[in-house]
Amino acid sequence: MASRVVTLQIDGRDLSARDDQTILEVAREHQIRIPKLCYVAGLSIYGGCRLCLVEVEGTNKLLAACTTVVSEGMQVRASSPRLEAYRRMILEMLFAERNHVCSVCVSNGHCELQSLAQELGLDHIRYPYIYPKLSLDASHTRFVVDHNRCILCTRCVRICDEIEGAHTWDVTGRGGGCLVITDLAQPWGEAQTCTSCGKCVHVCPTGALSEKGHSVAEMTKRRQFLPYLTLMRGEANE
Amino acid sequence: VDYETLTHLGSIMGSGGMVVMDETSSMIDVARYFMEFCMTESCGKCVPCRAGTVQMYNLLGRFAARTATPADLKLLEELCDVVKNTSLCGLGQSAPNPLMSTLRYFRPEYEVALGASQTAETGLLNHEACFVKGGR
């Protein structure tokens, strides 16, 4: 079905968009920056990180820009002191939740969590650190999963299922006890469905998934293939 | 007892159950009990509910152990606000409710539960101070 064109405002800018686009897609098209961690263009929408929450005129609730479809006359505020404060607090909760020690992390300097914290001016973590005892699985011949750095964005789960078609990754447990797992919680090296394509590693925003053979700050993710996800998806949709 | 009155009081109907407590119940323990429920029931999908309920539960533990500081009280209130307003579903959005309403109606209980150094100047034992300040 053909989509219609609607007009809306984001941060006071008059924009036009298709009525099947989300606020986040429209904002990105017009270089309006909205923080996000779980969203990756081309993968299914998750809405779990809550960093892309925006204020929309006419509703008291904050809406996730990645899950909210635009409508005619919509007035969106993508940044405000209140939103910035919430975004910083959500990042603080993430940092306190697991053991994100940047100085000894393979992804130091190339980490989306770290760069978002810098961008939003987060200089202290006021919440008590939980310091959970989490494992690291290096049983795969080429890759490592370090649960201490995982933020449970499920990008790895979605890319493995939706793009590679293997569905090696999934999430086990609930609440604070969630963990990403391979197959039925087997060591990654023994996961028979894994094709070792490495897409999960390169889509992972932090140092949770990395390639072996990299020391501190050496793990740069190769994201060049990501734009093709939207290209492939776009053609499939039409 | 109807929906509107309960909403006005900062409560919800839920399954329609009612818990009766007398003045010997610690409101901090009550808030902590409900927070433990939300923490274990959280599915873990969104960050504020998954990580926020754990933080609030742990901070309430400090109050229960009488080791909390005024800064902890501030953090607790801040966490209520962020978890309520940014969580994905109704569980996270209502998880801070028992904490918020006990803070609203029984704030002195939290204040006297601050670490020993904070209440020494009142010259009262914790439970005495609670009675006086709580106006009961």
Output the keywords:
heterodimer, A: 238 residues, alpha+beta, 5-stranded mixed beta sheet, 3-stranded antiparallel beta sheet, 6 helices, 10 strands, 25% helix, globular, B: 136 residues, mainly alpha, 9 helices, 0% strand, disordered C terminus
Given as residue ranges, the uncertain stretches of chain B (5+ residues, pLDDT < 50) are 120-136
Secondary-structure element order of chain B, as H and E? HHHHHHHHH
Q: Which structural class best describes the helix and strand composition of chain B?
A: mainly alpha
Query: Mean of residue pLDDT of chain A?
Result: 94
* Strand content range of chain B: under 5%
Order of helices and strands of chain A: EEHEEEHHEEHEEHEH
* Separation, N- and C-terminal Cα atoms of chain A: 9 Å
Q: How does the major sheet of chain A shape up?
A: 5 strands, mixed
* Gyration radius from CA atoms of chain B, angstroms: 15 Å
How do the strands of the widest beta sheet of chain A line up side by side? 2-1-5-3-4
Greatest interface and its residue counts?
Answer: A-B, 29 and 27 residues
Shape of chain A: globular
Tell me which oligomeric state these chains represent: heterodimer
- What is the percent of helical residues of chain A? 10-25%
Distance between the termini of chain B: 24 Å
Count the helices of chain B. How many?
9
Got a strand count of chain A?
Answer: 10
Instruction: Note the main sheet of chain B.
Output: none
